């Protein structure tokens, strides 16, 4: 109300650089949306390559466990493609305004965070099971270091995804929500 009163009287006690604020919001929105795209494309491309190589090696060597791991990689690639298609379909409901774009970015980061939180179930667990079965089936006492590496690698990957959620996604979501609240207050002042 004070802002409107000051604006009508030609006085402005303080001013928010709206262009700078919009630019800052646009940068954060683009960064949030790009991080989700990079995550999805990264997993899709990586698993396509892994599935192709393992299928070739499995057929060549006649090892069905290698083909089973290729199948897991292929299934994860399909899962991520389906999730990406559903996420893109949900984006249609956002109309492109700044407030709507912030909502879209928050939604995308929440999606990304949920993927990271559940990483153990949809990515690590299937690969860990096929890897452990394959290693157990092809057990070699001279390669015990591989067991140590695998046993340490999976908990490390789990810990890193938890770290990513706490240190990267939660602060980004909090920052976008803060910008959204600021924009909402400005909008409410204008409409009073």
Description:
- With 192 residues, the protein is mainly alpha-helical.
- It is 86% helix and 0% strand.
- It has helices at residues 2-8, 18-61, 64-90, 98-117, 119-137, 144-191.
- Helix 2 packs antiparallel against helix 3, helix 3 runs antiparallel to helix 5 (119-137) and helix 5 packs antiparallel against helix 6.
- The model has no long low-confidence stretch (mean pLDDT 87).
How do the strands and helices of this protein lay out in sequence?
Blueprint: H1 2-8, H2 18-61, H3 64-90, H4 98-117, H5 119-137, H6 144-191
Helix pairs in contact: 2-3, 2-4, 3-5, 4-6, 5-6
Summary tags:
192 residues, mainly alpha, 6 helices
Summarize the structure.
The protein has 192 residues and is mainly α. It has helices at 2-8, 18-61, 64-90, 98-117, 119-137, 144-191.
Query: What's the overall geometry?
Result: elongated
Low-confidence stretches: none
Helix/sheet category: mainly alpha
Beta-strand portion reads under 5%
The percent of residues in helical segments reads over 70%
Query: Which sequence of SSEs, written as H and E, runs from N to C?
Result: HHHHHH
Instruction: Report the radius of gyration as a whole number of Å.
Output: 24 Å
* Major beta-sheet overview: none
Q: Give the number of helices.
A: 6
**Would you count the extended β strands for me?**
0
Mean pLDDT comes to 87
């Amino acid at each position: 109300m004070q802002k409107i009163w000051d604006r009508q009287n030609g006085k402005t006690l303080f001013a928010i650089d709206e262009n700078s604020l919009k630019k800052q919001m646009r940068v954060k929105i683009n960064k949030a949306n790009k991080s989700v795209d990079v995550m999805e494309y990264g997993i899709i491309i990586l698993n396509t390559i892994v599935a192709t190589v393992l299928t070739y090696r499995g057929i060549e060597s006649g090892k069905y466990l290698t083909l089973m791991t290729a199948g897991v990689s292929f299934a994860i690639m399909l899962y991520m493609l389906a999730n990406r298609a559903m996420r893109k379909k949900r984006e249609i409901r956002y109309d492109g305004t700044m407030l709507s774009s912030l909502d879209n970015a928050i939604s995308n980061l929440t999606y990304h965070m949920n993927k990271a939180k559940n990483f153990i179930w949809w990515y690590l667990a299937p690969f860990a099971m096929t890897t452990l079965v394959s290693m157990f089936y092809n057990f070699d006492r001279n390669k015990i270091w591989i067991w140590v590496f695998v046993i340490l690698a999976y908990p490390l990957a789990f810990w890193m995804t938890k770290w990513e959620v706490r240190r990267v996604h939660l602060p980004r979501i909090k920052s976008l929500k803060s910008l959204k609240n600021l924009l909402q207050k400005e909008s409410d002042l204008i409409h009073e």
